Amino acid sequence: MSIPAFLKLVEIQTKIASVFPFIIGTLFAVYQYDLFNWKNTLIFFGSMLIFDLTTTAINNYMDYRKATNNHDYDYRTTSNVIGQEQIPEKVVIATIFTMFFIATGLGVWLVFETDLLVLLVGFICFCIGILYTFGPVPLSRMPLGEIFSGVTMGFGIVFLAIYVNAYDAGIANLIWSGEWVSVKVNLIEVIRIIIISLPCIFTIANIMLANNICDLDEDIRNHRYTLPYYIGKKYAVILFNALYYGSFVAIIVSVAIGFLSPIMLLTLIAVIPVFKNLQKFNAEQVKAKTFVISIKNFVVTNSAIVVFLAASLILEYV
């Protein structure tokens, strides 16, 4: 398998959706708890990234299988690297299993370095990641797909990136003693993490929402009933807009209640390019033309958060 073919199979350009929550969670761990464990951070990053590559490869393989079974295989799609000279089908399957076991192994290693709560949260994320693209009715083809993708990646990755660095800072813990398993949660700390992760949750959910809005007619023809089908295209576009503005409101709230430094209010500068992009999306929802707006707004919003969160750290240590 050539490197370009592999990168196309795993859609390497989409991994930015998991990298930003990882960076934000890591920076917040240092900002809020003054803790950074480079070893745990690297292990988690490796497990997270490889598992993300695995789920994408599974998704493309399932698209390939369903398309060939229905005799409507489209060689313009990402999955066209499968079954041709680039990547034989058996190599794709072997690659998926190899990446899955590597990601799982790194996850188990991380549990030994931290505690059992990482195992629980990681297991839930693993299950959602697999079911998101695999099975008779993948989560991505259901009306709850946006919620699963947004919460799993937007909150799950941020939480784990924080927790692997600050697992002994009193955020939460899981204790297994004989027949008893108990989970203790510091509500204030968990609420803090939820609020600061809302921009990631909303902007990641919007990537899928934009995709489903643009594919609505095709999805209906193929009996895929996603969120825009149930609430209507008009209200799906309104929701798309509202989630971006909700991201900035979450930042304002975080600053107002002292979860983030006042310097984070400078992220509101990003409202300008986000608003301009939304005007283009509101005018037309065409996959080839305007789906990319969801990616642009994701990058703009979260880049601003990363920059000013890093600035908050610098000012704190100066």
TrEMBL record:
<keyword id="KW-0474">Menaquinone biosynthesis</keyword>
<dbReference type="GO" id="GO:0016020">
    <property type="term" value="C:membrane"/>
</dbReference>
<feature type="transmembrane region" description="Helical">
    <location>
        <begin position="235"/>
        <end position="253"/>
    </location>
</feature>
<dbReference type="InterPro" id="IPR044878">
    <property type="entry name" value="UbiA_sf"/>
</dbReference>
<feature type="transmembrane region" description="Helical">
    <location>
        <begin position="187"/>
        <end position="214"/>
    </location>
</feature>
<dbReference type="GO" id="GO:0009234">
    <property type="term" value="P:menaquinone biosynthetic process"/>
</dbReference>
<dbReference type="InterPro" id="IPR000537">
    <property type="entry name" value="UbiA_prenyltransferase"/>
</dbReference>
<feature type="transmembrane region" description="Helical">
    <location>
        <begin position="91"/>
        <end position="110"/>
    </location>
</feature>
<feature type="transmembrane region" description="Helical">
    <location>
        <begin position="43"/>
        <end position="62"/>
    </location>
</feature>
<feature type="transmembrane region" description="Helical">
    <location>
        <begin position="116"/>
        <end position="135"/>
    </location>
</feature>
<dbReference type="GO" id="GO:0004659">
    <property type="term" value="F:prenyltransferase activity"/>
</dbReference>
<dbReference type="GO" id="GO:0042371">
    <property type="term" value="P:vitamin K biosynthetic process"/>
</dbReference>
<keyword id="KW-0472">Membrane</keyword>
<keyword id="KW-1133">Transmembrane helix</keyword>
<feature type="transmembrane region" description="Helical">
    <location>
        <begin position="147"/>
        <end position="167"/>
    </location>
</feature>
<protein>
    <submittedName>
        <fullName>1,4-dihydroxy-2-naphthoate octaprenyltransferase</fullName>
    </submittedName>
</protein>
<feature type="transmembrane region" description="Helical">
    <location>
        <begin position="259"/>
        <end position="278"/>
    </location>
</feature>
<comment type="pathway">
    <text>Quinol/quinone metabolism; menaquinone biosynthesis.</text>
</comment>
<keyword id="KW-0808">Transferase</keyword>
<dbReference type="Pfam" id="PF01040">
    <property type="entry name" value="UbiA"/>
</dbReference>
<dbReference type="InterPro" id="IPR026046">
    <property type="entry name" value="UBIAD1"/>
</dbReference>
<feature type="transmembrane region" description="Helical">
    <location>
        <begin position="290"/>
        <end position="315"/>
    </location>
</feature>
<keyword id="KW-0812">Transmembrane</keyword>
<feature type="transmembrane region" description="Helical">
    <location>
        <begin position="12"/>
        <end position="31"/>
    </location>
</feature>
